[in-house]
Write a structure and sequence with these properties.
Chain B: Pfam families: SBP_bac_5. The complex is a heterodimer of chains A (325) and B (720). Chain A has 325 residues and is mostly helical. Chain A contains 15 helices and no strands. In chain A, helix 6 runs antiparallel to helix 7, helix 6 packs across helix 11 and helix 10 packs antiparallel against helix 11. Chain B folds into three domains: 266 residues, Dipeptide-binding Protein, Domain 1 (Dipeptide-binding Protein, domain 1), CATH 3.90.76; 246 residues, Dipeptide-binding Protein, domain 3 (Roll), CATH 3.10.105; 34 residues. Classes of the chains: A mainly alpha (325), B alpha+beta (720).
Chain lengths: 325, 720
């Protein structure tokens, strides 16, 4: 397994370089260093000399990929691409255009993002699996039918509706929790109740339907009949045997998103005023802050790859037949 | 375990909620003299040498004190002493002879501003001023270990202060040339203070040798000198009367070298301990919490000099209660809490709940907040009135316009005859674009249609019949009335495009609007524009590009018709009329004249007008300049936006006026009234919790019953 993980990590390096290159190219196609300088200096009094000075100061005056005037390795390393992108492999993200340390900003924002994402993930998963198993338990009854109808209705509604409706009803009309905001420590709980609740409700419809399909496929297997024949109660059959055997497809969808929880949620964070990572990327795109955009894309790519590796590893835990070689 | 956790969470929740359950603020703040407000965009720079946007001004103007400020209540805007007295200005000719005040600008070789700093002003408490018993700085030559636990300036145990000196102002002016700071006004000021460019070259060289903090006191800046401890002198090249307005901005506020040196130490920048993050000043407030992602907090500066609330203003101020605090020491509020709200809906709802003391009025909540009377007057809606909310409106010193690129052969003309035809075409379009309708539909009436570049309320803008644009309007029944489409069609025919077709070839007239997505080119607005052009028989095409490409088009002169705006830096017509000065041509000189308009007479009059004091002679020149613009129509003058602001009844002394930015020290809050209103408006409604629980029970009950039946059933029954 160790060799497998090492091999996957080595495979990740060219993928990450490719992602970096693509981000770099896409960003520079629409946003030249001159544009960045103008955005930073403001359109009012930015002169050609001022723009040039800004580029020199930030290292954007170098050649993009190949520095013919440099010697040796400097031809490759004394370039914008190397300077701005490749050093991220050492998790050195540098500074944002406003001079602030990106690494520090990410560390500060990670907490609030996780404070919403982790409970949402756990509660959402628990609720979705439980409801799906119950629907399977009540399969072919009116409870199953109306449960599926409710799921379809819930997944058809935009998450924005849940957010705005939830804020209006719970915070404004019923005055039960703050509409938006965030506080560190335990005080964060009262700010998190509503966004977590809304996020769970907004996501549960589609998840329940997906898990229900998986469980229905499992429930017709022979081992289920055997378990029933042994006299086990239906709940034990479902929650102990069916759930365990349905773990492979569940893990495929679930484990891969665990590392991505760090990236936060743009919509929820924006509406609930949570200072997380979700809004950091969008703020950076609006401000044409390439340093932050490339850092967030890089972290997203790394986390996604880590998620995929973890998914593979998790298969071996739930299915002894799976061997990673 | 789960029960224990639930109990803990419930107790924690209820403890935190002590008062209203939905109160977003800590219980410790309840009943305190705090102003609560919100911000939508995070401030990018708080270093006074870099900061240049409204999002930042709302913080920075409360912290630093420029030499001058605007009178809070008087209109038109009037300068008054800030941290320094109003300067004495002496002008000299090339031979060094003192000139009279009314000497023509071309004779002025140098203008000398002598500025006397008010004595006894102290800086806010700050670790940069902390001293050891031997008098040496307490926090200098810090090691990385000393900073390990530091996250903000409040984490330093000791602070100190000292008196404001003239040298601090000079230090800040030198910082304009700092090569690492990229001050946005460097180029502009260097035009009049040529020593600044030489200083920048020196500093750039020095910065290469010394990667850390640069001691600017080692460098001389020709043209700026300290006269004595409380006086400094600035010598400008030529005459630049508008320079006095720049003295109201943070670019010229004092910066103590100790603070610059303190933040220049290794390890500080990595912790966001910089002047850009923690500005140091003598103003009424100091920044005590800086988390631009969530919350910024200003606290009263205990060393503030405490200037007095003004006792006079403009007519109507006394009736509005704005003079009730006459003579009282400022500031009134102890702390100001700014919370970041990215979205308008939570912002608006929290204002209605009493958790923000003031709010703007966006299009989304306009109908809820404001209603129009049958006479077209704007009033508060009944709901707002019942809550004691008050509406403040003011016309912003800004203009939004549709500019014609005068380098474009179609709308600018390339021959003498072509230019004349193009002028008529521009006039026709100016008439056809019904800006009253635009303001009504897209701005909910929050704007005043523009007759020329100068917004109402600024010197040079005339009112009544004398103030209308006679090309586009006529004076009818005591009010301006837009000329009819028939006039526009006639002008279009005279321009060689009868009914929107070329008189010779029959080719259709196509006008292209260059815009950015979300700007004027969005669907509803471009449909409206297309309809306006269609009425003339003209085809209209939107060429939407991203902001960078749009700017490139403007720089290279490849646009035809474009939508732009300008906020005045200061209340002088020069700051608006220069937008059409030939020397500001965008393509030729990279200036701000995006229309690339050039008119010799206008340019000459502009040079004359810009150095004149306000008075009848200056007004006459402005009138002529305005008439030239109205005749040439390089812009279809759009509108001056109107700012709408709402405040709760417990907030006092708020007066709108975009130019005056250091306003928080004047405001006062009736905390008891706010607490009472919040309690009344935010009583938790508990029955929905019971209903939700009952609904859940109702859903679970048949499931449980079904499960029991299922468990008790025989296999044969289950199969059935």
């Amino acid at each position: 397994m160790f060799a497998y993980v090492v091999r996957r990590l080595i495979y990740a390096v060219p993928i990450l370089i490719g992602v970096n290159l693509l981000t770099f190219l896409l960003f520079f196609v629409v946003n030249s260093p001159d544009d960045m300088a103008r955005m930073h200096l403001g359109a009012r009094h930015a002169s050609a000399e001022g723009i040039e000075r800004w580029k020199v100061e930030r290292g954007y005056d170098k050649p993009t990929f190949w520095n013919a005037e440099a010697d040796g390795a400097g031809r490759l390393t004394d370039t914008i691409f190397f300077d701005k992108s490749l050093r991220m492999f050492a998790f050195d993200f540098g500074s944002a255009d406003d001079g602030r340390d990106i690494g520090r900003e990410i560390r500060d924002r990670m907490g609030p993002s996780l404070a919403i994402a982790v409970p949402t993930f756990i509660l959402g998963l628990f609720a979705a699996v439980s409801f799906a198993l119950l629907l399977v338990f009540f399969r072919a009854t009116y409870l199953d039918f109306w449960g599926v109808v409710a799921c379809v209705a819930m997944m058809s509604i935009s998450s924005l509706f849940y957010i705005i409706g939830g804020q209006w009803l719970v915070s404004k009309i019923w005055a039960l929790v703050p509409i938006s905001g965030y506080a560190p420590g335990l005080d964060a709980a009262r700010f998190l109740v509503l966004p977590v609740l809304i996020s769970v409700i907004a996501g549960v419809g589609s998840s329940v339907r997906w898990y229900r399909t998986i469980f229905l496929e499992e429930i017709s297997r022979d081992y289920v009949r055997t378990a029933r024949a042994k006299g086990l109660s239906e709940l034990v059959v479902l929650f102990r045997h069916v759930l365990k055997n349905a773990m492979i497809p569940i893990l495929t969808g679930v484990v891969v998103v665990i590392p991505m929880l760090f990236m936060g949620s743009l919509l929820v964070e924006s509406f609930f005023g949570v200072p997380g990572l979700g809004s950091y990327t969008i703020d950076a795109i609006s401000a044409q802050d390439f340093a932050v955009v490339r850092a967030m894309v890089f972290i997203g790519s790394v986390l996604y790859i880590v998620g995929l590796i973890l998914t593979d590893l998790s298969y071996t835990l739930v299915d002894p037949r799976v061997r990673l070689e | 375990m789960i029960r224990r956790l639930g109990t803990f969470l419930l107790v924690a929740f209820l403890t935190a909620c002590g008062g209203a359950w939905n109160d977003p603020y800590p219980a410790a703040e309840r009943g305190r003299n705090i102003l609560y407000t919100a911000f939508t965009e995070r401030p990018k720079h708080l270093d006074p040498v870099q900061s240049y946007s409204e999002d930042e001004a709302v913080f920075l103007y409360q912290i630093v004190e420029p030499p001058l400020e605007y009178h809070y209540l008087r209109r038109p805007y009037q300068l008054r002493s800030g941290s320094a007295e109003l300067p004495t200005v002496r002008r000299y000719d090339a031979e060094g002879r003192l000139l009279a005040d009314d000497a023509p600008a071309e004779r002025v070789a140098t203008s000398v501003y002598e500025i006397r700093v008010l004595p006894g002003i102290l800086y806010q408490p700050h670790p940069a001023f902390a001293r050891r018993p031997d008098g040496s700085p307490r926090y200098l030559d810090l090691r990385p270990a000393d900073l390990a636990a530091v996250r903000g300036v409040g984490d330093f145990a000791e602070t100190g202060t000292r008196e404001l000196e003239a040298a601090d102002f000079v230090y800040q002016i030198k910082r304009l040339a700092h090569p690492r700071l990229h001050s946005p006004i460097f180029e502009l000021i260097a035009e009049y203070l040529p020593g600044l460019k030489a200083l920048q070259t020196q500093l750039a060289e020095a910065a290469k040798q010394e990667p850390g903090w640069l001691d600017l006191t080692r460098f001389e800046l020709p043209g700026v000198e300290v006269v004595d401890r409380h006086t400094y002198r600035i010598t400008l090249q030529g005459s630049y009367p508008q320079f006095i307005y720049w003295l109201t901005m943070p670019f010229f506020s004092p910066v103590p070298p100790e603070a610059d040196r303190f933040f220049g130490q290794p390890g500080m920048a990595e912790r966001n301990l910089t002047l850009d993050w923690w500005p140091v000043g003598t103003g009424p407030y100091m920044l005590v919490e800086n988390n631009p992602n969530a919350r910024m907090v200003l606290a009263r500066n205990p060393h503030y000099r405490g200037d007095a609330y003004p006792c006079d203003g403009e007519p109507g101020d006394a009736e509005a209660g704005l003079l009730a605090d006459c003579g009282k020491a400022l500031p009134f509020i102890e702390r100001v809490v700014f919370t970041r709200e990215r979205e308008g809906i939570p912002y608006w709802n929290k204002f209605l709940q009493g958790y923000y003391d003031a709010s703007g009025v966006s299009s989304d909540n306009f109908d809820q907040a404001v209603s129009l009377t049958s006479q077209g007057e704007v009033t508060l809606s009944d709901d707002m009135t019942e809550r004691g909310i008050r509406l403040l409106t003011s016309v912003s010193p800004s203009i939004f316009y549709l500019g014609f690129n005068m380098l474009d052969p179609l709308v600018g003309g390339d021959t003498a005859e072509g230019k004349e035809k193009a002028r008529k075409l521009r006039q026709a379009i100016s008439i056809a674009l019904d800006m009253e309708e635009f303001v009504s539909i897209f701005l909910n009436g929050r704007g005043v249609t523009a007759m020329h570049p100068i917004p109402p309320g600024l010197f040079g803008a005339r009112e009544g019949e004398a103030g209308i644009n006679p090309v586009v309007y006529e004076w009818r029944d005591g009010r301006p009335a837009r000329r009819g489409k028939d006039v526009a069609r006639r002008l279009l025919a005279e321009a060689g495009w009868p009914n929107g077709r070329n008189a010779q070839t029959g080719e259709a007239l196509i006008i292209n609007l260059d815009t950015t997505p979300g700007g004027l080119g969005d669907k509803a607005r471009s449909d409206w524009l297309a309809k306006q052009f269609r009425d003339l028989g003209v085809q209209f095409v939107v060429r939407a590009t991203d902001w960078n490409r749009f700017q490139e088009k403007m720089r290279t002169g490849n646009a035809q018709l474009f939508f732009m705006g300008w906020n005045a830096d200061y209340p002088d017509p020069e700051n608006l009329l220069f937008l059409l000065h030939g020397a500001q041509g965008k393509v030729k000189y990279s200036g701000q004249n995006a229309a690339n308009y050039h008119n010799d007479e206008y340019d000459r009059l502009f040079e004359q007008m810009k150095t004149m004091p306000d008075g009848p002679a200056r007004q006459a020149i402005i009138d002529r300049m305005v008439a030239i613009l109205q005749h040439d129509a390089p812009w279809a003058f759009g509108f001056h936006p109107k700012a709408y602001s709402l405040q709760h009844g417990w907030v006092y002394n708020r007066k709108p006026g975009v130019i005056v930015r250091g306003t928080l020290k004047y405001q006062r809050v009736d905390v008891a009234a706010r607490e009472a209103a919040r309690a009344a408006w935010n009583r938790p409604v508990l029955w929905p919790i019971a209903v939700v629980l009952a609904l859940l029970a109702a859903m679970v009950a048949p499931a449980v019953a079904h499960w029991r039946r299922h468990e008790r059933a025989t296999a044969a029954e289950v199969q059935r």
